[in-house]
Specification:
Layout lengths: L9 H4 L7 H12 L6 E2 L1 H8 L3 H13 L3 E3 L5 E3 L1 H31 L2 E8 L2 E8 L14 E3 L4 H8 L6 H9 L2 E4 L6 E9 L5 E10 L6 H16 L10
Antiparallel strand pairs: 1-3, 2-3, 4-5, 4-9, 5-6, 7-8, 8-9
Helix pairs in contact: 2-3, 2-4, 5-8, 6-7
Length: 243
């Protein structure tokens, strides 16, 4: 029979309600690493977490598989490359919000229509941010909504700048924009432009939507200007929008 520890582990004393003990214990191992404790021995991890070394080794095997922890040549352990990737995504998300939301708010103030920021999520697109039109008649997409990639101006812009082939996508890449009427939903028009980061990589698409009866040609320039503002805010170059 397995031995009962002399004292509760850190994970056991602060377990997530309704959670899984093994996950709590694995997370307690990750939490041990920090400034001044970038590399740790097996014994140090066991002492800090209150877990037996045998338990730590089993959990580390899974953490290593997920690249969350790596074993160094001297036998010590450090955080793995997946932690760096997650941190990059976390940091980028906050930087993105700080750049995108003010520009979207200004776009809505100028046009009085609804603005959304879409990113690709597998074979769909996710509405990551949304600012609604102040007008009562509008489309009612919310942040967190998943939409098709192959319908609507936002999805088609994402496809175009990820290399989708065809005359339509060639035109989108040349214009740095697409306008559509009823492509995703009857009676709704959309105008979208791509947003890039400092490396020139596609980040997402800014989309302005409105009832088709309120579509204005002047909105096209407003959307393109918002996309350029976002790209500049993310360190990208305006040359990305040159024809």
């Amino acid at each position: 029979m397995p031995r009962k520890p002399a004292k509760q582990s850190v994970a056991d004393t602060d377990a997530a309600p309704g959670g899984t003990a093994a996950v709590d214990r694995a997370l307690s191992i990750l939490s041990v690493f920090g400034v001044g404790m970038e590399t740790l021995t097996l014994g140090q991890i066991a002492e800090a977490t209150g877990l037996y070394k045998s338990t730590v080794l089993r959990l580390i095997a899974s953490l290593e598989h997920g690249r969350l922890i790596q074993r160094l040549d001297d036998g010590r352990y450090s955080l793995g490359v997946e932690v760096a990737r997650l941190y990059s995504a976390y940091s980028h998300s906050f930087a993105l919000s700080e750049v995108v939301m003010p520009a979207m708010t200004r776009l809505v103030e100028v046009t009085r229509e609804s603005a959304s920021f879409h990113v690709r999520q597998g074979d769909q697109r996710l509405c990551l941010y949304r600012v609604d039109s102040p007008q009562p008649i509008r489309d009612h997409i919310r942040a967190g909504t998943l939409l098709p990639l192959n319908r609507g101006s936002g999805g088609r812009v994402l496809l175009a700048f990820e290399g989708e082939q065809g005359e339509l996508y060639d035109q989108i890449r040349k214009a740095k924009q697409m306008s559509s009427n009823g492509d995703r939903q009857e009676g709704v028009s959309g105008i979208s432009s791509p947003v890039f980061d400092a490396t020139g990589k596609l980040v997402g698409a800014i989309t302005l939507t409105m009832p088709s009866t309120r579509f204005k040609d002047s909105h096209r320039q407003a959307v393109l200007a918002a996309a350029i503002e976002m790209t500049q805010g993310l360190g990208g170059s305006t040359q990305l929008y040159a024809s």
